[in-house]
Design brief:
The protein has about 190 residues and is α+β, with helices and mostly antiparallel strands. It has four helices and four strands, in the order H-E-E-E-E-H-H-H. It has a four-stranded antiparallel beta sheet, with no helix packed on it. The longest helix is centred in the middle third of the chain and has 40 residues.
Length: about 190
């Protein structure tokens, strides 16, 4: 019985307008008392011809008679057809999200690369014992390029503006720490107005 219902449910999974199928006890004299029949809500199966596996004489009387031998079967079976295809708008959103993900990934990677170059150059300058103040100028150019890339990423929405500000601040603080370390910059003393 379960195999027959499975076969029928696979046939009914074809594009059709059924929303609900029910198993009801049959009282016809042609069927035994333990047989059941599948009926549509109020439509007959005479006009159905969507499954080539089933012959025409199955639907001739308006029902399919099946007999059970093992165990009682539930009185009702509900079959609902769910579409597996994404809606067009959802597919478009998925395409847009993938395009943005790749674009944002490239921008973030460029930011990390430029920040890494600046920080490595600053570390080399910090370890140099006889460093001159003019050696900061090429590093300042690298910092300006990093700032530009960060600002563009914030402008197009790849980075949040606070994240961009934090990254720029990290570079500026590191540069200032090295200038203080070598004595090229002396912070102004803080005056307390009491």
């Amino acid at each position: 019985m379960a195999a027959a219902v499975h076969c029928l449910s696979s046939c009914f999974a074809l594009p059709c307008k059924f929303r609900k199928l029910s198993l009801a006890a049959s009282s016809s004299s042609a069927c035994s008392s333990s047989s059941y029949s599948i009926h549509s809500n109020s439509a007959t199966f005479n006009s159905l011809s969507f499954c080539t596996n089933l012959s025409d004489n199955v639907f001739s009387n308006g029902f399919i008679a099946m007999s059970t031998n093992q165990r009682p079967i539930r009185r009702s079976v509900v079959c609902e057809v769910a579409s597996t295809k994404k809606a067009d708008s959802a597919a478009k959103r998925a395409r847009q999200a993938e395009k943005r993900r790749i674009y944002n990934k490239a921008r973030k990677s460029e930011i990390k690369t430029r920040m890494k170059k600046v920080l490595e150059a600053l570390d080399v300058l910090k370890k140099k014992a006889d460093a001159q103040a003019e050696e900061v100028l090429p590093i300042e150019k690298l910092i300006a390029e990093a700032y530009s890339v960060i600002d563009k990423a914030v402008k197009v929405g790849t980075l949040h503006r606070n994240t961009g500000a934090r990254r720029k601040s990290r570079l500026a603080r590191r540069k200032k720490a090295i200038e203080i370390h070598h004595g090229w910059y002396k912070p102004a003393p803080v005056e307390l107005n009491a």
